[in-house]
């Protein structure tokens, strides 16, 4: 199994030792399996060292000790190898989690066992787990979609196991939310080089996850879960601001201040970038198309951004800043009543994302295909959201310290599911559930649901 070859220590000299040549009596299938495992392990190791984009076939064959003809006899290209490696890691992870989660015991006992097993796997195989949770930057839309499908399969397995335990099928978002929170906490520790802290966190995460009942209170409106995915070609995602990106200030001599002109040009570039990424994906983002849609010259573009990736990061920062601003403004209007403030902030956030689908897609979905810098921006935004949730600790001492961080990650996962599957128009209907998820560890499910269903000033 490829995942078993990946660890946090420097690779031993014999990790990629070739099988004996000549007459060795090994079945061809065993030889091929060994070659595939070596190539998958080499790819995971090289992605960790230099990033997916910089990995060359010659690097892979040299480290794995296979020939180029052997590589091309096994895989069409580097992307096919990455998908195979991802499948191997995902399959091993799912087997480990389900083997413990499906045992006899209470819901909390099963959660604790599964989380301990997952934490131990992350400590033993940090590079492989980073690939599973974060993907590979710059790997393209096919790999991103494949990663999403594998994570959805894990959710489906756990949901089916829960339904068997409760003997009643449930169609809510609880499993998706809890897995998203756990995944975010684990991924953050892996990125920070703190995988050794995960076993201690497993107990806290289990306590947090167990605070959510198997079924939300009956008062919450039902949500229809649908697994259909976006087509990847969604012009409907072009927001009103993105469509306005093609507008421009008057050309020629003008009395308009230079700073205002530059501000307009930067806004148009940002909105055009968001629209293109939402419609076509990051891999098809080009400077000529950004410049054309934003109605700026190439020279003007390069005065604003050194590269298309810098424009992407600029658009991400704008989207994240706007999302934070509207959320915090709404929160502060009700700051004297913390549960109501959280509810108001989340409704404002959902209203913003619904009104700016192109920016929502870029910031929430495309971040994972971009760069480590894009994930840094995302993590800072999530930390800001989590900071406003930590006031809940004053209301209940039963919530574990990791609760606010896990809630922010779970929120992101639910939003990601709606936006990635072209269901952003349905987000407002999910608002009560997201509010309920945010408040339950601090207030308990019944009070959280009552606040989620309370009056709102949102349209």
Q: Strand content of the residues, in percent?
A: under 5%
Mean pLDDT over the residues: 82
Which percent bin holds the helix content?
A: 55-70%
Total strand count, please?
Answer: 0
Spell out the helices and strands N to C. HHHHHHHHHHHHHHHHHHHH
Fold-level CATH name of the largest domain: Tetracycline Repressor, domain 2
Protein model, in words:
The chain contains 20 helices and no strands. The chain is mostly helical and 459 residues long. It folds into 2 domains: 2-199, Tetracycline Repressor, domain 2, CATH 1.10.357; 236-398 and 408-459, Tetracycline Repressor, domain 2 (Orthogonal Bundle), CATH 1.10.357.10. Helix 14 (308-333) runs antiparallel to helix 15, helix 16 packs across helix 18 and helix 19 (427-443) packs antiparallel against helix 20 (445-452). The radius of gyration is 24 Å and the shape is flat. The termini are far apart.
Describe the structure using short key phrases.
459 residues; mainly alpha; 2 domains; flat
Give a brief description:
The protein is mainly alpha-helical and 459 residues long.
Task: List strands and helices in order, with pairings.
Blueprint (H helix, E strand, L loop, with lengths): L27 H23 L6 H8 L3 H7 L3 H24 L5 H18 L1 H9 L6 H26 L7 H18 L6 H13 L29 H4 L14 H23 L6 H8 L3 H7 L3 H26 L4 H18 L1 H9 L6 H18 L13 H18 L6 H17 L1 H8 L7
Helix pairs in contact: 1-2, 1-4, 4-5, 4-6, 4-7, 5-6, 5-9, 6-8, 8-18, 11-12, 11-14, 11-16, 14-15, 14-16, 14-17, 15-19, 16-18, 17-18, 18-19, 19-20
């Amino acid at each position: 199994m490829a995942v078993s070859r990946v660890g946090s220590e420097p690779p031993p000299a014999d990790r990629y030792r070739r099988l004996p040549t000549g007459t060795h009596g090994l079945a061809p299938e065993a030889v091929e399996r060994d070659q595939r495992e070596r190539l998958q392990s080499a790819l995971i190791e090289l992605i960790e060292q230099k990033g997916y984009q910089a990995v060359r076939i010659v690097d892979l064959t040299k480290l794995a000790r296979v020939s180029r003809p052997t590589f091309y006899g096994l895989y069409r290209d580097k992307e096919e190898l990455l998908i195979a490696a991802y499948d191997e890691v995902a399959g091993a992870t799912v087997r480990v989690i389900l083997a413990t989660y499906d045992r006899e015991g209470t819901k909390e006992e099963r959660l604790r066992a599964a989380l301990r097993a997952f934490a131990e796997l992350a400590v033993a195989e940090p590079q492989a787990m980073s690939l599973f949770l974060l993907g590979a930057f710059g790997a393209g839309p096919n790999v991103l979609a494949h990663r999403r499908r594998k994570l959805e399969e894990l959710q489906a397995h756990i949901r089916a196991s829960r339904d068997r335990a409760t003997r009643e099928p449930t169609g809510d978002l609880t499993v998706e939310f809890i897995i998203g929170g756990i995944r975010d906490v684990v991924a953050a520790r892996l990125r920070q080089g703190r995988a050794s802290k995960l076993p201690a966190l497993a107990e806290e995460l289990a306590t947090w996850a167990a605070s959510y009942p198997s079924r939300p209170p009956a008062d919450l409106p039902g949500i229809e879960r649908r697994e259909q995915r976006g087509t990847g070609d969604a012009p409907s995602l072009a927001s009103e601001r993105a469509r306005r990106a093609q507008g421009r200030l008057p050309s020629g001599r003008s009395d308009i201040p230079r700073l205002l002109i530059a501000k307009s040009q930067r806004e148009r570039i940002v909105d055009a970038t968001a629209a293109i990424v939402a419609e076509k994906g990051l891999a098809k983002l080009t400077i000529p198309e950004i410049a054309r849609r934003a109605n700026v010259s190439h020279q003007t573009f390069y005065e604003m951004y050194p590269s298309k990736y810098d424009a992407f990061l600029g658009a991400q920062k704008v989207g994240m800043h706007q999302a934070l601003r509207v959320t915090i403004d709404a929160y502060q209007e009700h700051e004297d009543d913390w549960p109501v403030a959280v509810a108001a902030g989340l409704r404002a956030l959902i209203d913003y994302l619904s009104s700016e689908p192109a920016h929502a897609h870029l910031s929430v979905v495309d971040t994972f295909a971009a760069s480590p810098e894009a994930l840094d921006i995302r993590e800072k935004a999530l930390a800001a959201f989590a900071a406003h949730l930590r006031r809940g600790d004053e209301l209940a001492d039963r919530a574990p310290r990791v609760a606010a961080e896990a809630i922010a990650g779970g929120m992101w996962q639910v939003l990601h599911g709606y936006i990635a599957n072209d269901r952003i128009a349905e987000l407002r209907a999910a608002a009560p559930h997201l509010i309920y998820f945010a408040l339950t560890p601090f207030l308990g499910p019944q009070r959280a649901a009552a606040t989620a269903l309370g009056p709102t000033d949102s349209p």
